[in-house]
Design a protein that fits this description.
The protein is mainly α. It has one domain. 76% of the residues lie in helices and 0% in strands. It is globular, with a radius of gyration of 17 Å. The two termini are 15 Å apart.
Length: 270
């Protein structure tokens, strides 16, 4: 039997907490140009007591909403024409990420809940490390060129697709450094290109999850999902407007510590 979830309770504070939690996490993510899904997942597990797979599926649904809303927000800074002009890069990464998303979602549905908690915790630690050492990457010459770059792009996309499916995230925290370092993309362009890769990748993972009975968590928690997603969008928008207000030298280590603490709590979750 699936674990009873917060939306099944008659707690009057559940929805305001969902909106507020989504807003705070969205703002944290927006401050560094991300959607905040990596911070939302521990909240779904720890505060709202969703089972591991249900939390991942809910997080995936909210990530889809947030990323879809982010594209028009960013269009004024990075027009769609600039994204279309870099379609070979998008296709290169998608060649790996779509397959990775399908496999990642398949593995998640087959893992025992206790094992999935441990996998999630380990990936949160990995993302904390990437935030500190990879987020401030600056554009320059591509790390590789030609066939080597293409192969590396497929491999990187495959790994990112797996991580995105296992955590229910868009994968921007991994895609942006990859686009900057491997392909030499400007940081603003990389942010928009990552969205172009994330949307199809998440849809593939979502399709694979729809085959599992845990997917019914979306139907049972529609209101909760929409309220928290709305909070996330508002928070991401506000955080994006405050981008650069807090120096990354202070912000990134603090966010990494939050992820590490969250990882410990998820690891111990029963």
């Amino acid at each position: 039997m699936p674990k009873e979830t917060v939306a099944s309770f008659s707690k009057p504070r559940a929805l305001p907490m969902a909106f507020g939690g989504g807003g705070i996490i969205g703002a944290l993510g927006g401050l560094i140009g991300l959607g905040g899904a990596e911070f939302r997942l521990p909240l779904l597990i720890g505060l709202f007591n969703f089972a591991a797979l249900e939390a991942v599926i809910l997080n995936k649904a909210m990530s889809l909403v947030v990323v879809a809303s982010a594209l028009p927000f960013r269009a004024a800074t990075v027009p769609f024409g600039a994204i279309a002009g870099n379609w070979p890069i998008v296709v290169n990464l998608l060649a790996g990420s779509l397959l990775g998303a399908w496999f990642g979602a398949g593995w998640a549905t087959r893992l025992k809940s206790e094992t999935l908690y441990k996998v999630i915790a380990a990936l949160l630690v990995a993302i904390a490390i990437v935030l500190v050492i990879g987020h401030d990457a600056t554009a320059g010459q591509p790390f590789l060129t030609g066939n080597a770059q293409m192969i590396a792009g497929v491999v990187a996309g495959f790994i990112i697709g797996i991580v995105a499916s296992l955590l229910g995230v868009a994968g921007g925290e991994l895609l942006i450094p990859t686009l900057v370092l491997l392909f030499g993309a400007d940081i603003k362009l990389a942010g928009s290109l990552s969205l172009a890769v994330s949307l199809p990748t998440m849809l593939v993972g979502f399709t694979r999850y729809s085959r599992d009975q845990s997917f019914s968590v979306l139907g049972r928690n529609k209101t909760f999902l929409l309220v928290m997603a709305a909070g996330s969008i508002v928070g991401t928008f506000i955080g994006g407007r405050l981008l650069g207000l807090v120096p990354n030298g202070l912000l990134l280590p603090a966010l990494a510590v939050i992820l590490l603490i969250s990882a410990v709590k998820v690891w111990r979750h029963r």
